[in-house]
Design goal:
Blueprint (H helix, E strand, L loop, with lengths): L1 H21 L2 H10 L1 H16 L1 H10 L2 H37 L8 H27 L3 H25 L1 H14 L1 H13 L3 H32 L4 H28 L5 H4 L9
Helix pairs in contact: 1-2, 1-7, 1-8, 3-5, 3-6, 4-6, 5-6, 5-10, 5-11, 6-8, 6-9, 7-8, 7-9, 8-9, 10-11
Organism: Hymenobacter glacieicola
Protein name: Polysaccharide biosynthesis protein C-terminal domain-containing protein
Membrane topology: Multi-pass membrane protein
Length: 278
């Protein structure tokens, strides 16, 4: 557990070091401001599984494998939907926020932001998977793979950063993760917990695709509003709240209401359109 956490911190901090060496020191400031909100999103999303760790350990250790698989699908569905929701909300409003805050010159590019958001979602999902391995006591192999990923990340980020600049650093991080923990973690889950790969992919791809359709529509509407309406802090706040409510309502009704409805307090079930259990 300690080695994996150390490796994760190395991966998260490597990008700034590489950018300062192979791009420029000025680019580090622009990069840090652009990806600040995605990093906060990664931290908040990670707390979903961290808070559930005691319950996961109890289920994996003392209950049946079917029960463990059921909870695995549920946790992965929750983190995948929240990750996709955060992806589109940040993509819609991050550039606008930075422009109002410090000026447009401090926003790197939509490409850099999109790569940072993909990395945010990827790391969130991998962490959610790894908690079940820690609960089972199979952390050594994953921790060693995480350290290997950190070394590969540095090598690829330096090379690609020299070739294509700022986006190359994030591309190197994504490639390193894809070649290591992103496939190795589901493999270990199948080996030690008998969780089929289709359980992982269905819990990730289905909500990601559905939320992306709704998120794409909201993104186009926000871009249109910025062109047509006055660019003010008030408009930013109103559209941000409206987009958040609409996407959150869509995510709840389509993907989360059925599996998580039974956990909603009785006084809120009518408000959240939860069908009471018979």
């Amino acid at each position: 557990m300690f080695l994996h956490g150390l490796a994760t911190q190395i991966i998260l901090n490597t990008d700034r070091l590489v950018i300062g060496k192979v791009v420029s020191l000025a680019a580090v400031t622009v990069f840090s401001i652009t990806v600040r909100i995605p990093e906060v999103g990664l931290s908040l999303l990670s707390r979903v599984t961290e808070n559930a760790t005691p319950a996961v350990m109890e289920i994996v250790t003392h209950e049946s494998s079917d029960r463990a698989r059921e909870q695995y699908r549920r946790v992965l569905l929750l983190t995948s939907t929240l990750g996709a929701l955060a992806f589109w909300l940040i993509l819609c409003f991050n550039q606008w926020f930075i422009t109002l805050w410090v000026g447009p010159s401090f926003f790197a590019s939509n490409l850099v932001l999109s790569l940072a958001l993909v990395l945010m979602v990827q790391q969130t999902i991998v962490r959610s998977m790894s908690f079940f391995l820690y609960a089972k006591g199979n952390s050594r192999q994953l921790s060693l793979m995480s350290l290997f990923e950190a070394g590969l990340n540095i090598a690829l980020s330096v090379f690609l950063g020299q070739q294509i600049g700022l986006p190359g650093v994030l591309v190197g991080t994504l490639i390193a993760s894809s070649l290591t923990s992103s496939w190795y973690t589901p493999y270990l889950l199948k080996k030690y917990l008998a969780i089929p790969l289709r359980d992982s992919w269905s819990s990730i791809l289905v909500p990601a695709a559905g939320i992306s359709v709704a998120g794409g529509v909201v993104y186009m509407l926000v871009q249109w509003a910025q062109v047509v309406l006055p660019n003010t802090v008030l408009l930013f706040g109103l559209l941000g709240c409206l987009a958040g409510v609409l996407l959150a309502a869509f995510t709840w009704l389509v993907f989360l209401r059925r599996p998580f409805g039974p956990y909603v307090p009785a006084r809120l079930q009518r408000i959240l359109l939860v069908v009471p259990l018979s």
